[in-house]
Amino acid sequence: MRSPTRRAATAAFALALAATSCAGTSSADTTSTATTGSAETEVAAPATTTPVTETVPAPDDSASTEPSTPETATEPETTATAPETATEPETATEPETATEPETATTAAILLLPSVDVVSLATGEMADLNSFSRPGATLVWFWAPH
Amino acid sequence: MAQDNPDLHVLGLGAQDTLEFANEFVASGDLANSAITMVWDPTFASWRDYGIRSQPYWILYDDQGTEITSRPGVIDLGAVQAVLDA
What we know:
By secondary structure, chain A is α+β, with helices and mostly antiparallel strands.
């Protein structure tokens, strides 16, 4: 037989354990635990272990401590941004050669002195230039005597 | 020569004397039916423009009107043909 003092101490210890382990639980549980002497150890045992695992979550060290490695900045592509070299203007191309004037290919009409002469074929007076013809010309100077 | 070279125009430019003498000259030489264009200058002005002081005399021009030969005497057919062949 336990002495009343020992029983009171045991009940107080059990109450303290229940208060510690059952934090957040309803007061009805605590009350019933304090009043039930045989169930002290059965309630207290899970009360000491269960809260530890529930209230202290294992920190995710890998997620929190490892700093994310910053992505290295990619170097700008300098070659892609290089401006295109300006194309040379087409002034270097040779202009089309001008066609030669028609006077170079066709015969010119010889300019003769503007003098009235007699056509011996018709007997008519006419300007000497009216007898000029295109092409090479031979002027023959003659006298009747 | 003018008949053998249709590209060559021969102009006979006469002066001095009279028109009758000029017509007799053309008739005697049967030049009326030739390819030569025969004219007569009663004023002698054309000869003065050319500076002609004796006859016969001849001046050859190419097809561009450039003077090639200018000389007195008988016409040098070889020189004329050379110009036509050039």
